Amino acid sequence: MKDDGDEKTCVSQKTGILYVAPEIRVSNEKNQKRRVDQKWVAQTIEKRRSADIYAFGMVMYEILFRSLPFNDKVDLNEISTKAAEGEKITRPQIQKDKQLHPDLQALLQDCWHDSPEARPSIRRVRLSTESIMKTKGSLVDSMTRMMEEYANNLEKLVGERTAMLEQATLRADKILSQLLPKYVANELKNGRPVAPKMYSSATVLFTDVVGFTKLCGSSSPIEVVNLLNSVYSGFDEIINKRDGYKVETIGDAYMVVSGIPEENGKRHICNVSDIALEIMEFLITYRIPHRKSEKLVIRVGFHSGPVAAAVVGLNAPRYCLFGDTVNMASRMESTGEPGRIQISQASKDLLANEYPEFVTAERGEMDIKGKGECRTHWLLHKDIAYFDK
């Protein structure tokens, strides 16, 4: 079994045939028949120079086309045998898909000429390549120029890749900021854990589409997706104008909070009230995309109180809210009426004390799961003329 060294030697001997000029192979064959050691046969200077030009042509082909002169399907031993017998041999094919200067192609083919006398001298080769490649000076100068061009090109590539990386980072940061609060995203990017935090006062709002299950049953999945996408995009625009944060959407349920993750005193109740009223106003003109004659009806409810916030999960972290305030806000939505905004007594008291421009109406005592009888209210509208009064 041959080792790697033997295989490399065989490959080297096989490809070495490429660089031997035909006339040298003929001489090799004749000298071998005379039982003369070819390694010590003195060739004329002119023949050796012509043979070197032939070898140079093969090397130049490899440099220009980045491949061997003949592909794997060509039998190099057969080519060598024909050359040794004085037969005309096949020359490498010029690759058509490679853009090559016509003068450089002509020079390349001249180096392979069957007649050694017709091959160009090394001086002509040097002058021709300098003229075609627009290079001057010594080999060291040419190499220096090539290194400078390579360095400049490398610097350009690094700049382009850096710009691409910066753009990708900005896109990733934007997506991350949409999934998590900004300070949470920054902490996670820096590899720091985000500790749970307790907020003394915040307002949590829930919305839910009335008759969503029935609507899904008579609509295609794509129609349902388009519906939710258009509705929630409208909701998102409203929230972006206010100091609110969209916590999550689960199917047709939409959850918003204000006062978290950034505390804002008691302004959270004002922000959420504005959001709720603007959502209702948005739905007045909204039409279901695949049913233009139908309106979308939702229930809205919110409650104010203390809330705990934490990041849950490692592979897919989520910013979640916990506590009785969240449960109560959900009950305000689920026990509400279509097209109306139900709020808890705590939210109503906060509005009355801090933002009396919001008009409410008492609904009465409602049986709230886990709470028993609780007094609730309707948020009706905002009295713009209140401040004039």
Automatic annotation (TrEMBL):
Reaction equation(s) it catalyzes: GTP = 3',5'-cyclic GMP + diphosphate
Domain of life: Eukaryota
Domain Guanylate cyclase intervals: 203-333
GO biological-process terms attached to the record: detection of abiotic stimulus; detection of external stimulus; intracellular signal transduction; receptor guanylyl cyclase signaling pathway; response to temperature stimulus; taxis
Alphabetical list of InterPro entries matching this protein: A/G_cyclase (IPR001054), Cyclic_nucleotide_synthase (IPR050401), Kinase-like_dom_sf (IPR011009), Nucleotide_cyclase (IPR029787), Prot_kinase_dom (IPR000719), Ser-Thr/Tyr_kinase_cat_dom (IPR001245)
Molecular function terms from GO: adenylate cyclase activity; ATP binding; GTP binding; guanylate cyclase activity; metal ion binding; peptide receptor activity; protein kinase activity
EC number, UniProt record: 4.6.1.2
Pfam families (UniProt xref): Guanylate_cyc (PF00211), PK_Tyr_Ser-Thr (PF07714)
A cellular component term, taken from the record's GO annotations: neuron projection
Protein name per Swiss-Prot or TrEMBL: guanylate cyclase
Signal peptide start-end: none
Localization per Swiss-Prot or TrEMBL: Cell membrane
All copies of domain Protein kinase, residue ranges: 1-133
Predominant localisation class: membrane
Ranges in a coiled coil: 140-167
This protein's UniProt keywords: Cell membrane, cGMP biosynthesis, Coiled coil, Glycoprotein, GTP-binding, Lyase, Magnesium, Membrane, Metal-binding, Nucleotide-binding, Transmembrane, Transmembrane helix
Gene3D superfamilies: Nucleotide cyclase (3.30.70.1230), Transferase(Phosphotransferase) domain 1 (1.10.510.10)
Membrane topology: Single-pass membrane protein
Organism: Ancylostoma caninum (Dog hookworm)
